[in-house]
Design a protein that fits this description.
heterodimer, A: 332 residues, alpha/beta, Rossmann fold, eight-stranded mixed sheet, five-stranded antiparallel sheet, 12 helices, 13 strands, 21% strand, B: 336 residues, mainly alpha, MetI-like fold, 76% helix
């Protein structure tokens, strides 16, 4: 399902750099010169541990970075328009309409005092300017599309009356009701039971494929990304360290961190052990100013890693890695 | 059906609550030193006549018996007699309680009209000028005593500007009060079509209502502001923002979620002000229930005090009950 790179991307970030500048404290870089590119209909998986900057990227795209966060530099192009230059009310037109987000913990995110059907109806009314009756019908259809049993009854249900999986479906319905071009899923299924998670993912994949929706799929679970995404990007401390088509990524991850991630989710205990050994502690002198961000955790680090920050380079067409000594592709 | 049963059980609970309140009030009042018999007969009375009066009043009997007698009379609607006014307490309170209630209700209404919009606005524009004004207002309203503000208002609008009639009582002495229907002069004169009485009572209400409104808008503003602030930061508001819903709608939804907290503070204030407005009543010689009760305390006139306690307790219980019904209407989570 890989799309030709010649098509105009739906989303493209150019050296996007975001930092949090708490008053009186040193600023923290949350995203460092991040370039991501999502073609029409493509699903990009963004994988990283907590604190890697995944949610910051989602919020930056939505234009809702909370203070003290600021976009230091870089651009976010949505269909060729730079969102960082758009006024707030223009962005508000896009949010939920052209770019929507599917959040985790949906029962906490839905308005507790409003029936879920009403909440979907509001979206259709304000974004599609649909008349009340039509908006209600659309909301009802959408509840059916996300496979909620007895949608007419659930329409009037309040969030606290739904199970976690059901609420997740409602949030998916909210994300898709205006047929957006880009859907961002921010760790959306992480709070669910594994069996429910599989169902929801299948549903999400089916609905986005049907509508030719592009998607930024943010997750901590590299295994989920394997089944779901066309391409995978690995984020580490606000930096993309590896980017590759899904198949070739799993055939042989090149960055040591990707290997560590994959090993952590692996059932192959030897592999897990090999990559999750303690790294020998560093001598103080070795840590330079422009080290590789992963160097101190890296099993394969060498002297160069501590005084030369690696750039993202192309190993093979479409395969990028940010490492001086990438892991060789396994022959088997 | 479930709602009806809920209402029924709440009403049933009113009875033990009232009995408990009367008991506590009774004990507290008897604990205050002071002998009504001595006060009634004056300093020249002989010990014999004082003792005789004490026996007549039943003051020589043990406390539990006195309490039981009081309860027995209470059941028959007899709240005893005030020796100061020589009137039955019930008929005294029938005119005085509505006086206070009218004053406090309008005052609270004004406080709501000031406090809620200002609180919502200062939560929405936290960093803006309105936010600053809101914060400042809450502080000043908390620091200024109501009787002082009342005196300032009287000085400015009566003594200096002569805009209003003399701020004594609920109505001009020359104007005949309307027949009692609700006990609210404004409503009664409106119902009777008595425009003179209406105009005069509105004029007399103006300053005390403004006083109570300005002062009590403070806590309402504070509560509205902080709750709205929390609700606008809450996950569901953030999510609505992510969904690109219009800011006015997000504010409206946040306000609905903030409403239970605001209702709580309003109900507490309402019950509190029945007695808490007494200083304002005194400044304006309002002749309300608060003043009546304070006179009772000062003169060991027990019956008016207990009567006041019962009236205001009943009132508070009714208000809390209504507020609980309102919670039910607002929040589906507590409906079952």
């Amino acid at each position: 399902m890989a799309t030709s790179s010649s098509a105009t991307p739906v989303l493209e970030t150019n050296e996007l750099t975001v930092s949090y500048r708490p008053y009186g404290l040193t600023p923290v870089l949350a995203l460092r010169k991040v370039n991501v590119r999502i073609a029409p209909g493509e699903i990009l998986g963004l994988v990283g541990e907590s604190g890697a900057g995944k949610t910051t990227l989602a919020k930056a795209i939505m234009g809702v970075i909370p203070p003290p966060g600021v976009v230091e530099f870089g651009q976010i192009f949505f269909n060729g328009t730079d969102l960082t230059q758009q006024p707030e009310d223009e962005l508000n037109q896009l949010r939920g309409r052209a770019i929507s987000i599917i959040v985790a913990n949906p029962r906490g995110e839905l308005n507790p005092l409003l029936p879920v059907g009403e909440q979907l109806t509001n979206l259709a009314r304000f974004h599609l300017h649909a008349p009340m009756r039509q908006a209600r019908q659309l909301a009802l259809d959408m509840l059916g599309a996300v496979k909620i049993p007895d949608p007419a009854r659930r329409f009037r249900a309040y969030p606290h009356e739904l199970s976690g999986g059901m609420a997740q479906r409602v949030v998916i319905a909210a994300g898709l009701i205006c047929s957006p071009q880009l859907v961002i899923s921010d760790d959306a299924t992480s709070g669910l039971d594994v069996t429910v998670q599989v169902q929801i993912l299948d549903l999400l994949k089916k609905l986005t494929r049907e509508r030719q929706t592009s998607m930024l799929y943010i997750t901590r679970d590299v295994g989920v990304a394997a089944n779901f995404c066309d391409r995978i990007a690995i984020l580490y401390q606000g930096e993309i360290v590896e980017e590759a088509p899904t198949a070739s990524f799993f055939a042989g991850p090149a960055h040591p961190y990707s290997n560590l991630l994959l090993a952590a989710f692996s059932h192959h205990s030897a592999l897990r052990k090999r990559w999750s050994r303690e790294v020998a502690p560093l001598g103080q002198a070795e840590v330079g100013g422009s080290a590789c961000l992963f160097a101190d955790r890296c099993l394969l680090h060498q002297g160069k890693c501590f005084n030369d920050h690696p750039e993202l380079r192309e190993l093979a067409p479409g395969r990028f890695v940010r490492c001086h000594f990438p892991v060789e592709r396994r022959s088997s | 059906m479930v709602i009806l049963r809920y209402i029924g059980s709440r009403l049933l609970f009113l009875i033990p609550q009232i009995v408990g309140i009367v008991l506590v009030g009774f004990i507290l009042i008897k604990a205050v030193p002071g002998d009504p018999a001595t006060l009634m007969l004056g300093p020249m009375a002989s010990t014999d006549s004082i003792a005789k009066l004490r026996t007549d009043l039943g003051l020589d009997r043990p406390l539990p018996v006195q309490f039981f007698i009081y309860l027995q009379k209470l059941v028959h609607g007899d709240l005893g007699t005030s020796w100061q006014t020589t009137q039955p307490v019930l008929s005294d309170l029938r005119t005085r309680f509505p006086a206070t209630l009218e004053l406090v209700s309008y005052g609270l209404l004004l406080a709501l009209l000031i406090g809620i919009p200002l609180g919502v606005l200062s939560a929405v524009r936290k960093r803006g000028i309105i936010g600053k004004i809101g914060g400042m207002y809450g502080l000043v309203a908390g620091a200024v005593p109501d009787f002082w503000l009342a005196l300032v208002l009287v000085f400015v609008f009566y003594s200096v500007l002569h805009w209003l009639a003399s701020p004594i009582g609920r109505i001009d002495i020359s104007v005949v009060p309307p027949d009692t229907i609700t006990g609210f002069y404004t409503i009664d004169s409106l119902l009777a079509g008595n425009w003179d009485a209406l105009g005069s009572s509105v004029q007399h209400l103006l300053l005390p209502v403004v006083t109570l409104g300005l002062i009590n808008a403070g806590p309402i503003l504070k509560m509205t502001q902080s709750t709205m602030d929390r609700m606008l930061q809450a996950d569901f508001s953030q999510y609505e923002r992510l969904c690109g819903l219009p800011p006015q709608l997000i504010t409206r939804h946040a306000f609905r979620n903030a409403l239970p907290s605001i209702l709580t503070i309003v109900s507490v204030l309402y019950g509190f002000l029945i007695g808490g407005a007494v200083l304002v009543e005194i400044v304006f010689s309002w002749g309300g229930a608060g003043q009546y009760a304070v006179q009772g305390v000062l003169n060991s006139d027990f019956n008016p005090v207990l009567g006041f306690v019962i009236f205001s307790a009943l009132f508070s219980l009714v208000i809390y009950f209504l507020v609980d019904l309102a919670y039910l209407a607002i929040d589906p989570r507590i409906r079952h």
